[in-house]
């Protein structure tokens, strides 16, 4: 194991100067739209059964790709329609959050390729139409996996699956977006 680690370290050290000299950090901005499923636990619903809510989600992000395949960013997310009806009979979910992330991308030929993103976001969320309406603030992990589809040199389309928790409520989202480099 130590020999493998040493060989890998030497390879990275040998290639790092060439990569660093050929690459300059690039900024980016991204906007995505999609759908999210929030899973409401049975103990919070009026009928005592688990419930799932489909909401729209919007994400805006900006950041810097420091070296090819590794970037950091900050983002802002909106879930639901932002019109909370505390008297609603059907279950509704609305939320807002801001956070940071680190993205690891595997660039294939032409910039096409998969990526994973890990980070943390702080949120405020509301559910109504429940036995006990719920309104909470908190912070939680956010994990994403997606695929880039370059359109032009500085423009990329992407599709992404993202998951997080709002206290006891799981949220799984599918997003499609566009990212521009500057």
Can you lay out the helices and strands and say which pair or pack?
Layout: H1 2-22, E1 26-40, E2 51-67, E3 70-79, E4 92-105, E5 113-128, E6 134-152, E7 155-166, E8 169-181
Antiparallel strand pairs: 1-2, 1-8, 2-3, 3-4, 4-5, 5-6, 6-7, 7-8
Proportion of residues in extended strands: over 45%
Helix content: 10-25%
The total strand number stands at 8
Radius of gyration: 20 Å
Span between termini: 41 Å
**General form:** elongated
H/E element sequence: HEEEEEEEE
Describe the strand arrangement of the main beta sheet, using strand numbers. 1-2-3-4-5-6-7-8
What number is the mean pLDDT? Answer: 85
Search tags:
single chain, 182 residues, mainly beta, Porin, eight-stranded antiparallel beta barrel
């Amino acid at each position: 194991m130590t020999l493998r680690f040493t060989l890998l370290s030497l390879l990275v050290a040998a290639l790092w100067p060439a990569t660093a000299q050929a690459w300059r950090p690039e900024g980016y901005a991204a906007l995505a739209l999609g759908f999210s499923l929030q899973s409401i636990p049975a103990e919070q619903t009026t009928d005592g059964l688990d419930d799932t809510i489909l909401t729209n989600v919007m994400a805006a992000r900006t950041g810097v790709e420091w070296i090819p395949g590794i970037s950091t960013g900050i983002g802002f997310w909106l879930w639901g329609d932002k019109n909370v009806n505390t008297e609603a009979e059907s279950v509704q979910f609305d939320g807002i959050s801001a956070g940071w992330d680190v993205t690891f991308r595997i660039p294939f030929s032409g910039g096409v390729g998969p990526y994973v993103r890990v980070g943390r976001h702080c949120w405020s969320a509301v559910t109504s139409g429940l036995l006990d309406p719920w309104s909470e603030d908190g912070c939680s992990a956010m994990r994403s996996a997606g695929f880039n589809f370059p359109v032009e040199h500085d423009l990329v389309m992407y599709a992404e699956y993202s998951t997080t928790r709002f206290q006891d409520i799981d949220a799984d989202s599918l997003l499609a977006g566009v990212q521009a480099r500057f």
